[in-house]
Amino acid sequence: MGIFEIGIWRRRARPYLLACSGAAYRNHQRVFAAGFRACLESSFSLIRALPPAAFMPALDLPLALDYDGALEARLFDEIRLVVAPTVPAARIEPPRDLANADERRAAGEYAIWNTVHDLFITQVAAQAICGLFRDDTEFQFALARQLGDDAAHAEFSRGRAAVLLGRDPLPDVEQGVRDAWDLVGGFALRNWQNFLAWQFHYEHYILARLFVNRRTARVLDFGHREFGENRILPDEEAHRIRITQWWLRKLAGASESERREWTDSLIQADEDVQRILGPYLRDSWQLNLRATGLDTRGHVALYDAWRRELLATLLRLTPDDLPPLTSLAA
Ligand SMILES: [Fe+2]
Ligand SMILES: [Fe+2]
């Protein structure tokens, strides 16, 4: 067997020897270079779990699909260095807590936005479980996990908004969720391609702003911080990865013609969602800026490049293979 790449992948302190016999898709080399922890299913063979410091190649098990937060962070950093170099690799200055009424109001409005965002996700996921994906039990597990996680986040954000604003924000939340349904709810549930493109926007591309916020926010609601770091971050990674895995498994099992058809239709759906959500996403950056003072220099170019990179990675293409995409600024 010709070996295209070979390397050691560590998981839970256990090393595995991996080998790949040939480039399985066009940006394979680049994704491989992003690290063995980030290698993708069906591209590699797990040769075996290694005893410490041993090499005993014997091809047997297929490697379980692995798309994870390490790959996302690595890809984000490659882009950030080129497009938004003012965003650091890690936080430099510690943030401070809210200090006055204006800051509490801005943080409260941002908490309402987050409540709406998460509650809307739970409603769409619930409909998808018993509608679009009623026969796909595997995907139902991923969506049910997302539903439960994001419901907990929504409830917590509603509570923070109530504390910061001195009133229950429920009427604003209800209006926000109605607006979200009018904007994109029907579109997202029309077919699986639309649904997946909606997920990419709500769960994946949003990471650009969250990475920047995590590293550059000057002011944070300290009452939210612990829950955000210890609950929301791991939850989001868990359900985002599961949704991604469902898609990558589906793609890995596709015929060549299906692969082409699905790729084209997903690019189209992704573009449609971007055009629909443009104002909503621009608002989210402004609300986030008012609430935390994150570094928004170059954020349009950063978002656009991140979306292109991630969409290509999710479709197993190179960014250069994609057609021109609609900008966040459009
Ligand atoms: Fe969430
Ligand atoms: Fe989520």
List keywords for this structure.
single chain; about 325 residues; binds fe (ii) ion; about 65% helix; Ferritin; mainly alpha
Strand content: 5-15%
CATH architecture of the largest domain: Up-down Bundle
What class do helices, strands and sheet pairing give? Answer: mainly alpha
Biggest sheet: strand arrangement: 1-2-3
Distance between the amino and carboxyl termini: 49 Å
Q: Might you state the CATH topology name of the largest domain?
A: Ferritin
CATH level-four homologous superfamily name of the largest domain: Ferritin, core subunit, four-helix bundle
- Helix count? 10
Secondary-structure element series: EEHEHEHHHHHEHHH
Write down how many β-strands occur, each being a DSSP E stretch of 2 or more residues.
5
Outline, from the CA principal axes? Answer: globular
Helical proportion, percent range: 55-70%
Overall pLDDT:
86
